[in-house]
Amino acid sequence: MAEVLHTDICVIGGGSGGLSVAAGAVQMGARVVLVEGAAMGGDCLNHGCVPSKALIAAAHAAHAMGAGGPFGVAPVAPEIDRTAVRDHVARVIAGIAPHDSVERFEGLGVRVIRDWARFTDPREVVAGGLRIRARRFVIATGSTPAIPPVPGLAQVPYLTNETVFGLAVRPFHLIVLGGGPIGMEMAQAHRRLGSRVTVIEAGRPLAREEPELAAIVLERLRAEGVEVIEGTAITAVAGTEGALNVTLADGRRVAGSHLLVAAGRRPALERLGLEAAGIAHTDAGVTVDARLRTTNRRAYAIGDAAGQGQFTHLAGYHAGIVIRSAVLGLPARVRTDHIPRATYTDPELAHVGLTEAEARARFGDRVEVVTFPFADNDRARATLRTDGMVKLVIHRGRPIGAGIAGPQAGELIAPWSLAIAQRLRLSAMAGVVLPYPTLAEVGKRAAGAYFSPKLFGNAPLKRVVRLVQRLLP
Ligand SMILES: Cc1cc2nc3c(=O)[nH]c(=O)nc-3n(C[C@H](O)[C@H](O)[C@H](O)COP(=O)(O)OP(=O)(O)OC[C@H]3O[C@@H](n4cnc5c(N)ncnc54)[C@H](O)[C@@H]3O)c2cc1C
Ligand SMILES: NC(=O)c1ccc[n+]([C@@H]2O[C@H](COP(=O)([O-])OP(=O)(O)OC[C@H]3O[C@@H](n4cnc5c(N)ncnc54)[C@H](O)[C@@H]3O)[C@@H](O)[C@H]2O)c1
């Protein structure tokens, strides 16, 4: 008979969400068991955010060597050692790994079990030869690459986010299936590292984003030589290692050396035995309420497994909600309107709140939109990075959506995340004083663009000003 382990909180999955719950809960005094079946740190550290941003940084360095011409700096062709690039990515992961390690978590007082967890009944999980009975369970099992049912795909060697960062060779011609954030980030990075790249997207690339902002990114990718075929799906795949052929819905064929499948994600639930615990789920993820509680009152689901979006910062935010609820007993509820997202292409693409289309569907004609181009920002001009735009969606004097395409958009979205989270008035964003010359001024100027027509060219205001000027001593 297996040993029974009693605990307050059992966290299943040691990725972005699960580690945050475990660290927070144990340091507040709860007894915590953490079960992780693969590498500590989850997708973000091992196969996602961290390696992708490290690869993008290497690609940026390569691109910069050929981009100095307009500054009077003669471009040179970079010599790229793909083994060294792969090692750089691995070193970045290894540098962060201690923060997510078994040793650190055991040092905090968490009991870490390295195994796959499975529910056997509504209040018991088995893992590592133990029966874990917990007051509360937190399902934080993340997601895995969705592999579309394309004929022939299962028979060819293809890459996913779980294998692409281990490549030590330069793909001669990388075909990317899917033009979402993963597909586009990887397409540009590989192009800059010397591969020919073709992205094939069934619908619109970066479809979730404001179309005019996505268009800025797409134009740049195409200008760098990434071929983007949109509006047609891959319907068949054939070939062997190094010699692959894909057939498109419109009959076209594309031949390439490697294929990266970036067709979305599916929640990693299959190992969990959710039925035994009475936990309902759909293809999108575990069914949760506004407090992230599942249909089993002892269990919560967070992060990618909860199917409400796939971002590390969302998983971290979910963790905070669960800590307040399961550790402190407070009735914390999730908000979704203030969660930002960024895609780390160059230029970057970032958004928080509603898009214009979403806002119009909700508020109709009461929505106002202003835009401001990076071309009118002095820092962008000085650095020759004028390809970009800020787009603000405004309702009753408050920003309810902000999108940015441009250099450092992922950083520049920060004040808008605060503004939307705190429901600040747009006047606060227009009135802030920022250092000159910074890219951050594009946000302030966009907010100012909303007020300019109301202040300048306003006939009643002009009459008041003339009167004041007559009366002033
Ligand atoms: C290529 C790529 C790039 C990305 N870039 C970004 C980015 O720049 N910014 C961003 O915010 N997000 C990014 N993401 C998304 C981000 O990685 C995820 O949203 C995040 O990792 C989700 O955290 P999580 O805790 O829900 O799951 P994960 O971090 O995936 O952790 C889940 C863990 O649970 C474990 N597990 C699963 N089942 C079981 C079980 N039955 N028992 C025990 N353990 C189990 C898994 O092994 C895994 O370690 C990217 C994703 C990819 C694929
Ligand atoms: N910077 C970031 O924060 C970041 C980066 C990468 C990933 N992520 C997260 O990971 C999630 C998944 O990203 P993703 O890019 O894999 O998924 P996605 O769902 O955003 O995009 C997948 C695309 O593949 C297309 N597709 C599917 N089948 C196809 C076929 N047979 N032929 C051609 N196209 C096909 C779909 O139309 C879709 O546009 C993102 O939504 C995001 O939440 C975040």
Automatic annotation (TrEMBL):
One matching Pfam family, short form?
Pyr_redox_dim
Enumerate the Gene3D superfamilies for this protein: 3.30.390.30, FAD/NAD(P)-binding domain
The record, for InterPro entries, names:
FAD/NAD-bd_sf, FAD/NAD-binding_dom, FAD/NAD-linked_Rdtase_dimer_sf, Pyr_nuc-diS_OxRdtase, Pyr_nucl-diS_OxRdtase_dimer, Pyr_OxRdtase_I_AS
Asked whether the UniProt record includes Nucleus among its keywords, one would answer no
Cofactor notes: Binds 1 FAD per subunit.
Q: Domain Pyridine nucleotide-disulphide oxidoreductase dimerisation, which positions?
A: 339-446
FAD/NAD(P)-binding domain sequence ranges = 8-317
Q: Which cofactor does it need?
A: FAD
* Record: residues binding NAD(+): G178, G179, G180, P181, I182, G183, M184, E185, E201, G264
Answer yes or no on keyword Endoplasmic reticulum.
Answer: no
* Chain positions recorded as FAD binding sites: K53, T141, G142, S143, D304
Keywords recorded for this protein, A-Z: Disulfide bond, FAD, Flavoprotein, NAD, NADP, Nucleotide-binding, Oxidoreductase, Redox-active center
Disulfide bridge positions per record: C44-C49
A single GO molecular function term of this UniProt record = NAD(P)H dehydrogenase (quinone) activity
Q: Which family does it belong to?
A: Belongs to the class-I pyridine nucleotide-disulfide oxidoreductase family.
Q: Which PANTHER family match?
A: MERCURIC REDUCTASE
Protein name, as recorded: Dihydrolipoamide dehydrogenase
